[in-house]
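Figure S7 source data.
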Amino acid sequence: MSLLKAEDIAVHFGGVKAVDGVSFEVDEGEVFAIIGPNGAGKSTIFNLISRIYTMTRGKITFDGTDITRLPSHKVAPLGIARTFQNIELFDHSTVLQNLLMGRHTHRSTNFVEDILFLPKVRREEREHRKRVEEVIEFLELEAYRGKMIAGLPYGVRKVVEIGRALAMGPKLILLDEPASGLSVEESQEVAFWIEDMRRDMGLTVLMVEHDMKLVSAVADRVLAVNNGRPLALGTPAEVQSDPHVQAAYLGTPEEDAA
Ligand SMILES: Nc1ncnc2c1ncn2[C@@H]1O[C@H](COP(=O)(O)OP(=O)(O)OP(=O)(O)O)[C@@H](O)[C@H]1O
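Tokens for the predicted adenosine-5'-triphosphate complex:
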């Protein structure tokens, strides 16, 4: 069953057709990757799903709900969490504080209830802590729990960014280039975590990634895009051997054949 469905989605910025008629479905429990050269429109597709950008045309359905015109702040509570290409954490807060902030989408208490620290507030606080501790254990972040983000190595910050998204308890996680800037060993770890997210947490994963080794290792299906247009859809091996995809990456005249 498809959890996310994008139908003929498009966004144009003046004359730039950043995304121009892309359709795909992500099945529940699937790891689905979007690949393409720089400027192909991959991050823009994420921004359309997150509702950061408003679509020029098309429709996006998540878990049976039409989210095409949903305000962006209502996307996360539905069960969609994301990471950003340029890590978006609070540098002067600890790992634990950043992960707890990931729980904010689940707050049902108001300011007065919080001040009075009512039983309902305490109960929610306990639940937030429990979920965050599960994430810390899952991503093996115990050693960094009390450390400031600013002082952490890049690879650890990338993992915390994934943790912040996981702390939300989503059904679908959007990973924007989870392996960029990581060493070969760190990328392999990310591959294991993606597998575990699916197997142990029952998550559906949609990722944008340049690292074809990671994509081949974890993705069930791949959508290749170029110039905002779809090029090929299939297994990693099928997409990698597609002549249009090869042409787009090599920049040969074949590119126009798409
Ligand atoms: N807010 C915006 N205003 C104008 N143009 C934009 C905007 N956002 C994206 N674009 C343009 O849309 C195109 C697609 O950009 P996008 O960032 O989605 O590419 P990408 O495939 O994610 O690239 P990369 O791999 O380099 O991250 C680019 O030409 C980009 O300049």
